[in-house]
Amino acid sequence: MRDVSVVRDGKRILDSVSLSIGKNESVAIIGNNGSGKTTLIKLLRGETRPYFDEDSPATMKIFGEENWSIFDLRSRMGIVSMDLQNQFEQGTLVSEVIASGFFGSLDVFRNMEVTAEMFSKVHDAAVMMGIDDLLDRRTEGLSLGEMRRALIARALVSEPSMLVMDEPMTGLDITMASKFRKMFDILIKAGVSLIMVTHDLADIPESIDRVVMMKNGRIFAEGHKDALFTSETMSDLYDEPIKVERDNRTYRMHLLT
């Protein structure tokens, strides 16, 4: 995207953002609430459109194309978010949650046929996420971590080119969050490209090196995490005194009082 803005109710949510993400590249997008992270994801997903300015026309390509079918786009880009999780009915079977990824829906409805090949892929995705024993369970009995795994399986079932995760660690305890980071590293090494939105450095898998920092609807900084994850840069990003610590390939930040 080049000079892309998003305007809502007269306010610029994104302001002249230019960003390139390469094929097979994984990126972490960080910043405070309201910085424009989620709006950026909605642009990538085709859920919102850029603001058109005749004096400064924006350009945007996804998978190399300026024009695309929203359904084709969503089949090539899996999504995992708390917002999506909250939209599923409590009585939905885990197998149906995963299978709905083929249709971009929130369930498998009567007019949708899950073929034997599709169900095989549902089972394979469930095995990958370690929830194949939960396929006949209903979502109302799942833990937060189990439901999140089901959503990741749903995102992977159509073999997308990219997996987009909006705050995927929200609500997970420290043990489960650690397991998810390791799982994301495995996915990246298996060839899945990840775009992760987060506000916490500790959420970022070791395999993700490139970071895009958002602030006030603009890109504040971008580059390798080893160069950007410093106490000075993070303090400037969050407008608070922050200390950054590194443990091997994992970063953590602490607010100084």
Task: Characterize this entry briefly.
The protein has 257 residues and is of the alpha/beta class.
Structure, described:
By secondary structure, this protein is α/β, with parallel strands linked by helices. The protein is 32% helix and 22% strand. It contains 9 helices and 10 strands. The chain has helices at residues 37-45, 70-76, 82-85, 94-99, 116-129, 144-156, 174-189, 225-228, 231-238; strands at 4-8, 11-17, 27-30, 77-81, 162-166, 193-198, 210-215, 218-224, 242-247, 250-255. The strands form 3 sheets. A 6-stranded mixed sheet has the order 4-5-6-3-7-8, sandwiched between helices. A hairpin with a 2-residue loop joins strand 9 (242-247) and strand 10 (250-255). It is globular, with a radius of gyration of 19 Å. The model has no long low-confidence stretch (mean pLDDT 89).
